[in-house]
Amino acid sequence: MNELPEWCPPYSSQKRDISTNEEVYCICKKPDGGELMVGCDGCDDWFHFSCLKISSNYKELVFSFFCPYCQAGITGPGSLSSGNLPKTIWKRKCRLHSCYKPCSENSKYCSEQHAEEYIGGVLRRVESKERNSVSLTRQMLEAGDLSKIQLLGKQGIPPATREQNSDLYDSLIGRDKKLKELREEQEIIAKKEMPRIEQEMKALKEYSEWLKAVNSRLFDSVEEAVSRKSQKKKKALKRKSICGYRSQLTIPCSVEDFSAQFQEDVEELHDICCRMRCSRHQDWAGTMQDALQFQIESFETSSQRLALLVKIREDQLNSQFHEQMQRTADLQHAPRTEERVQVAQLT
């Protein structure tokens, strides 16, 4: 069980106002007053955006929402088992900073207009004396094919090296806090988040294969006999199978042992739902796979965004490094007149 956020009050099962008998919702336990709310996919209660400290800008970005109590394991699916607790999943936001609409299908933007606006902003951020955003954009438009555009990108700022000036490199690039934070975020995604999701996908696949084998062992022989009778009566036969939902996707025992212990009147065995037509966990495997795939795509998008931000920051620092190197070189080769020395001291 996780701890609740500091701003969230302890859970209360109150459903109606004691004085007015009106239905109450959210962590504030107040009636619906027309404020923006979101429904929890775990406990089915409704919550105000303002009470959850969520900006109303994010109202179109909710994919799957779980309230603080469900995320802490107090209510919802997490309260019934010791498995992984649910988390709220958001749709991918348009890359334009000021836009809070979800991305269009197979795109990183909500529209072509915002794609153009974002790219224009990126070019302006890396603008320098040698690289004018307007002229660079014109060259990209006139390039004609992808290989020429890629060639323009390769003609960027040369990388700074420690061998050129170790003191300047360490103070400007080596200790840059922003670049360090971006690289740390990249490492977390690459070495922690992505392996975790890949492991969960693997566990889901192995468990699904085990469940398929269980259903086959339990019902195939029975269905084969029933099928022969159905063919004579020309009736369609629906395949029988248990629901199979389990909060922890670990295989509890062998197919043979589970089949031997199974009884049709038992609804749960080894924490596995054994109902034949289960409305509560309908298509749980497909939903779980979609959620994991969505997380993979989100982290891949984040990795691409971070790689771009790292490249931009490196270009900015490289530009500053070469500018300072050039200033140092100019001072070293300039005539050392009394006036020049006085100006250098002032600057």
TrEMBL record:
GO molecular function list: zinc ion binding
Pfam families associated with the record: PHD
GO biological process, any: positive regulation of DNA-templated transcription
Major localization listed first in the record, in broad terms: nucleus
Subcellular location as annotated: Nucleus
Domain PHD-type: 23-73
Key words of the record: Metal-binding, Nucleus, Zinc, Zinc-finger
Keyword Zinc-finger: yes
A GO CC term attached to the entry: Set1C/COMPASS complex
Keyword Ribonucleoprotein: no
Highest taxon, organism lineage: Eukaryota
InterPro entries: Spp1/CFP1, Zinc_finger_PHD-type_CS, Znf_FYVE_PHD, Znf_PHD, Znf_PHD-finger, Znf_RING/FYVE/PHD
Protein name as it appears in the record: LAFE_0G09296g1_1
Source species of the chain: Lachancea fermentati
